[in-house]
What we know:
By secondary structure, the chain is mainly alpha-helical. It contains 6 helices and 2 strands; from the N terminus they run E-H-H-H-E-H-H-H. The longest helix is centred in the last third of the chain and has 30 residues, at 124-153. The protein starts with a strand and ends with a helix.
Amino acid sequence: MRFHQVKDLVTxxxxxxxxxxxxxxxxxxxxxEERVRMALEYLAEHEHKMENDLTGYLADGTDHSxxxxxxxxxxxxxxxxxxxxxxxxxxxxxxxxxxxxTALTAHRTLQDLYSHRAELAGxxxxxxxxxxxxxxxxxxxxxxxxxxxxxxDY
Length: 154
């Protein structure tokens, strides 16, 4: 479909985090080294938090309700492209660094999507909403990288 509401994109992004969390959880249950398992479990928890944060926008009915109802025209259906489906079934789980690299790639995809929507926003509220999502996501990515580095150094 070509026309979407902002809430459709937020719902999709929350599902993206849920699917990523499920993938990390499944990988953590496999035969991986203990630090890698801890990293995967941490990432799964983080993805659930990100999912909950986004679903909070949909449920709270605060200042964002008007923006969430905004329609936008996007000739290329989102997601652009379905990166999660293209991730390998078995992410390289040899090291914490390789797990982190995969997680950062997935997150940068979402951040790029938010930035793209901010650039194409039809109004200032919509632009501010997506810019805030992008900046918040950038901060979360830095936090994940920092926390994973601590696990690697431990």
